[in-house]
Amino acid sequence: MASRSKDKRQKIIRAATKVFARHGFYHSKVSEIAREAEVADGTIYLYFKNKDDLLISIFEESMDQFLTLTRNEIEKETDPLAKLRRFVRLHMTMMEKNPRLAEVIQVELRQSSKFLKEYKNVKFLEYLQVVAEVIAEGQRQGVIHKEVSPAVFKRMLFGALDELALQWVLSKRRYSLADVAGQVTDIFLQGIEVTPSSRGVALASEVPPQA
Amino acid sequence: MASRSKDKRQKIIRAATKVFARHGFYHSKVSEIAREAEVADGTIYLYFKNKDDLLISIFEESMDQFLTLTRNEIEKETDPLAKLRRFVRLHMTMMEKNPRLAEVIQVELRQSSKFLKEYKNVKFLEYLQVVAEVIAEGQRQGVIHKEVSPAVFKRMLFGALDELALQWVLSKRRYSLADVAGQVTDIFLQGIEVTPSSRGVALASEVPPQA
Lengths: 211, 211
Description:
- The structure is a homodimer.
- Chain A is elongated and about 60 Å long.
- Helices cover 76% and strands 0% of the residues of chain A.
- Chain A folds into two domains: 1-48, Homeodomain-like (Arc Repressor Mutant, subunit A), CATH 1.10.10; 51-194, Tetracycline Repressor, domain 2, CATH 1.10.357.10.
- In chain A, helix 2 (30-37) crosses helix 3 (41-47).
- The longest helix of chain A has 25 residues, at 51-75.
- Chain A is an all-alpha fold.
- Chain A contains eleven helices and no strands.
- At the A-B interface, helix 7, helix 9, helix 10 and helix 11 of A face helix 7, helix 9, helix 10 and helix 11 of B.
């Protein structure tokens, strides 16, 4: 796609995110998105098939960005557990910094049955796969329990983050999601790691040697 | 409500669960639910305001049953960690035994913005509160870490179970949810408990006494 055309597409996506967050997906009109994006109504249909396509594109774009950012951030760590900690913090921070996007992803998107049932969400699956790979890496290194299924764990972690982000959106963002992230990571890391965590180490030292 | 009237209400709720699971909420017609329940169309409106009210009632009824069952089951245990294990297993088993209900709760209900935004879900909050209370109990007994926030944990746990149940429904129930439950509990219990679990104990014994 030529750069100018790509810019226009981005502009429409940003406008749609605003409008969906403001009125909800079902009550939003394509004409309103066009007005917000400062393009003609017809222009939108040059880039997107319909309103559903726009909603899904918002998600795809953001997943693409999440994925790039996450991969870059995670590479900075060598320890798989530290990688998971970064993943969780980054996910929550991205939601916190983009409240309109969070509203659309958490509230509007889950209302689309088209999205839930018909759409093969490649980027999202790749995003979850990042978690599964970190788990497998930790298992090879002997720092994560072998019994942990990477496929189950990635869903557990995402489910927990998704529910917490949804509550945060529905509560009108009354608290810090980044603060919650630390709590989530502490529980999940202690839950999967082989060597006791700092919390665990203190405890292990209390176990009599004969235990 | 008189018993006969209560029976009829139940019959309509069961019929609506079937119809919603078969065609999806949006494509279901009240007339079809009436046919399935073997009542006149008008009868439905004696018990429910509209289709949304029916959807929410399905959820309320099932949460009410989940809550009663869960409380009974949990009382059989004295150890808070064993209580959590029961909670998770029961939640997954209830989904597994009621695939139509699981479809409606996991797929249809999340599409209702009325449900998500306007509805105060008393029974569901009580259900989550069972988890929070078990955590607080474990903290008083010194078996669960004091840093774990019961409010965050109940959402984490529910989010993980909900995501796993959703994937199970979308995968056309290709695997056993009860099997997944064990995996989920292992991770969460090790994640919050003060004394190392059986897995943790074995590991603790590997820690040199000077650690």
